[in-house]
Design brief:
By secondary structure, this protein is an alpha/beta fold. The protein has 23 helices and 28 strands. A hairpin with a 2-residue loop joins strand 4 and strand 5 (83-88).
Length: 620
């Protein structure tokens, strides 16, 4: 049995007596007793000290990939309480099996650390399950059909909400369209008395019918807000498409509409969102979720849920939507570091410098190929983000800035460098992040590793967006700047992985497959092809990006991210070995068990034996 080299622990994860100590004791005993005895072998030594208490849970008979270089790959794992007690061979772990031990027979299946969603929107995921799911719509007519069904069930004046449409994934487009999106005439016809508001998959644009525009005070002469666009036809009539900050106009009216609910009704909706999001996360093997943005009020709600033991997965929450003055005053009251079997951590701030490429909101160094009159949008002023960074240094908070375009990434790195120099701190110690980091100029790629800035990327975006990115950037610029994972890794950067759910489904396996294959479908032919495959990760790198790298990106590598004794017993059992099977078979892999803090929170076999409907990979 291979022994762990970490000081103070053996492979079984219990305090162990070193061979030198054993020999010294034997020599001392021999001197006292006068008899010379043979020196025991290492195996005999381990057997002599391996008297252990039974474990609460043992998984055995599989391939346990610890993602810990000192432990490597083994067969079984033992758990007591909410932490890992030991990993090792089946024979070694048999010592931990007692009369009350729960034993899971792996039958050769793969065991990995619990997956960590590196960038998602937890409450938005829950809300997306409460409204119309438009993510699978193949064309505008399918969306109209879903809205029409909802209108039939609604009272006059009741709002209809949906999310997930993406015009680049449709198989056809109505004749009357602007900027690749239909005008809202047909939506007005089917919902004349119900405001309809449909969010784009990216979250960076929305589509409103006339009733919703009227509710938001949007007319044909309403000026574009800073950092946003009210898309108009040639006759200056608003089409219904609202880009970036223009969404705020209608969303203010939505806030007033939702205020009609009583506090109890609102709380019930919020609690349901927590449960729905947790159910879906566990189904896909996610044990920790890095939530990219919550207000102080939402964090207060999450605190109450944690106190009740009602958070299904561990949350790492970024403060979002608060003014700099409010954060300067309140951040000390919200700093929350992990203690014990903790399910809520707050130690970071989310800012957003630009928008999304699909909505022409990503801030580029050069204009868009298909819209040469713009190079994107600046959603939050650089000066505001700089002030946030100063406040973060003062209060010990991490800064995580949304940056998608080449200019946005450069500006963000420049901000970080300026603030570190101004405040006299070491940037590498702070582990500040760039969220998404999708399109990076080659000159800026090495700066991530040099500065210690973490690239919090989403593998699934590369293949979901791949077919249409060249239409925005041109083929040459796409190849030079888009999702340069290999170049980032080769220059020393740490890459985290995720899905940006509900922008994409939370399926870890789908994002993992995209990360290692870069396989997508041609926008023109529908044939499968690889999106600049030279930038793909290896399978182990991709697994690390979903486990130990994301733990590191949240300052939590000492408690999660690998199956190391003493860390949280957050564990996933997969139906196939994603590290060795044929690449084409990876998407067929399913999560068989999700274990959080030593508790089995998802069991596929048990689910199959009930009538419960499971979420699909598309998030339905």
């Amino acid at each position: 049995m291979k022994r762990q080299t970490s000081p103070g622990r053996g492979l079984v994860g219990k305090p162990w007596v070193s061979l030198g100590t054993v020999l010294a004791l034997l020599v001392g005993l021999a001197a006292c007793g006068g008899d010379t005895k043979p020196v025991p072998s290492v195996a005999q030594e381990q057997a002599s000290v391996a008297v252990v208490a039974p474990a609460d849970l043992v998984l055995r008979g599989g391939k346990v990939v610890t993602v810990d270089p000192a432990l490597g790959e083994t067969q079984a794992i033992a758990v007591n309480g909410y932490t890992i007690t030991a990993v090792g061979t089946d024979e070694a772990m048999s010592a931990y099996i007692g009369p009350a031990t729960q034993v899971i027979e792996l039958n050769g299946r793969l065991v990995t650390p619990g997956f960590i969603e590196g960038h998602g929107h937890y409450m938005s995921l829950g809300r997306a399950r409460q409204i119309l799911d438009l993510s699978t719509a193949k064309n505008w007519q399918e969306i109209l059909n879903k809205v029409a069904t909802a209108v039939d069930k609604a009272e006059p004046g009741e709002w209809i909400f949906g999310r997930g449409w993406h015009q680049e994934k449709w198989d056809s487009l109505p004749e009357k369209s602007v900027d690749g999106v239909p005008v809202n005439d047909s939506l007005n016809d089917i919902a004349p008395n119900n405001p309809v508001y449909l969010g784009h998959a990216s979250g960076h644009a929305s589509y409103a019918n006339k009733a919703a525009l009227v509710a938001g005070g949007v007319t044909n002469t309403t000026p574009d807000p800073e950092g946003g666009t009210i898309v108009r036809a040639k006759d200056s009539v608003a089409t219904g498409l609202l880009r970036e900050n223009a969404q705020d106009l209608v969303e203010a009216a939505i806030d007033l509409y939702q205020a009609r609910l009583s506090p109890a009704e609102n709380l019930a909706l919020q609690r349901e969102r927590v449960a729905l999001a947790g159910q879906e996360a566990l189904y896909f093997g996610v044990t920790s979720f890095q939530d990219a943005g919550a207000s102080f009020a939402t964090i207060d709600f999450m605190r109450s849920m944690e106190a009740e033991g009602k958070l299904p997965v561990r949350l790492y929450v970024m403060v979002r939507g608060e003014t700099n003055d409010t954060m300067a005053a309140q951040l000390p009251n919200y700093l929350q570091l992990p203690e014990g079997n903790d399910f809520l951590t707050v130690r970071s701030i989310k800012r957003q410098i630009d928008g999304a490429l699909g909505a022409h909101g990503a801030w580029l160094l050069a204009p868009y190929e298909d819209m040469p009159d713009t190079a994107g949008l600046v959603l939050e002023p650089v000066s505001e983000i700089e002030r946030t960074a100063e406040i973060a240094v003062t209060h010990g908070f991490q800064v995580n800035t949304h940056a998608i375009g080449t200019r946005a990434n450069r500006e963000t790195l420049d901000i970080y460098e300026r603030i570190w120099k101004k405040t006299g701190v070491s940037g590498k110690d702070l582990r500040w992040r760039v969220e998404h980091a999708q399109h990076i100029h080659p000159d800026d790629v090495p700066r991530f590793g040099q500065l210690g800035v973490i690239a919090a990327m989403q593998g699934i975006h590369s293949t979901s967006d791949g077919p249409w990115i060249p239409s925005r950037l041109g083929l040459a610029r796409t190849g030079a700047t888009s999702y340069p994972w290999r170049d980032l890794i080769n220059t020393g950067a740490t890459i985290g992985n995720g899905t940006d759910v509900p922008v994409e489904p939370i399926s870890v396996i789908a994002s993992y497959y995209a990360t290692v294959s870069r396989m997508t479908k041609s926008h023109e032919t529908g044939e499968s092809e690889r999106f600049f495959p030279e930038q793909a990760m290896t399978r182990m790198e991709a697994l690390q990006s979903y486990t130990i790298n994301n733990a590191y990106a949240a300052f939590e590598e000492d408690i999660k991210g690998s199956l190391t004794p003493g860390k949280f017993a957050d564990i996933v059992v997969l139906s196939q070995d994603i590290l060795t099977i044929d690449e084409a078979l990876i998407p067929d892999t399913e999560v068989d068990y999700t274990i959080v803090g030593g508790q089995v929170k998802f069991n596929r076999a048990a689910l199959a034996s009930t009538s419960t409907t499971a979420p699909s990979a598309a998030g339905e």
